[in-house]
Amino acid sequence: MLTKPKHTSRNRHRPVKSLIKALRILDALGDRPGGLGITDLSSALGAPKSTVHRLVATLEAAGYAVFDPPTARYVLGSRVAKLGEQLNYQIFLPNLALPAATANFQVRAHSKYFDHDGLLFTVSSQTTNALQNIFFASDIVTSYVDPKTLLPFHTEFSLNEGQRRFTSKLAINQDNGTATSEKGNRIEIPVGTHDYLSFFYALRTFNLTPPRRSAISILVDNKPKTLFISTLQKENVQLGSQSIPAIQISLTTDDEQSDK
Prior knowledge:
The chain is α+β, with helices and mostly antiparallel strands. It has helices at residues 9-12, 17-31, 38-45, 49-61, 129-132, 196-202, and strands at 65-68, 73-76, 86-91, 101-113, 116-127, 137-145, 152-161, 164-173, 178-181, 186-188, 212-220, 223-239, 242-253.
């Protein structure tokens, strides 16, 4: 007796073309942190502008894309940070069996800060007993960011590293490309500049499929520097009995003293 072959759900359903195009839009925006316009996206996808506009409007409504009126470009949205999220890291150094330092990242609240709608990010890091006899560090960074673009509008630093003490509060105007210290000093910065902490969360919106290279502006000691993010390769990292898929990345800057 002949029977018809059974079709599984895998071969019975065809891919949703519009969803594939929407995902390609997210990939394209991830490649360009500065954003892309409808014409650029249309060329990248090889699709009509009307189709691209409809898809981007849907992504924007869901929080995955944000329209920037001054540039008429779309950038990735902030569906990357969840309120209450807490990430704890242990930092190891060669020849030390115990962690040398710890770092705690938190998404604390969504509220109104300094007359802006914003998300509050914090990170605290400190050396452990395994390293404190050699070098002591205890740093706290607080960043208030736009919930749509993840760009900071106010940043506070309190860094205690060995003999070095550094505190700073900056009011950042992303529209005008300026940062103003609590003493009134004005710093010119590229529009779209991140601080240490906002970059950590914004990195999640990047397309990190290797090989790839991206660049952003980041504040380092109250000065804008260019940070290059290079994705090198996919690999599995062994943590105890777990094998975790990972992507190896390299971070470099245009700072002549980048090791500091």
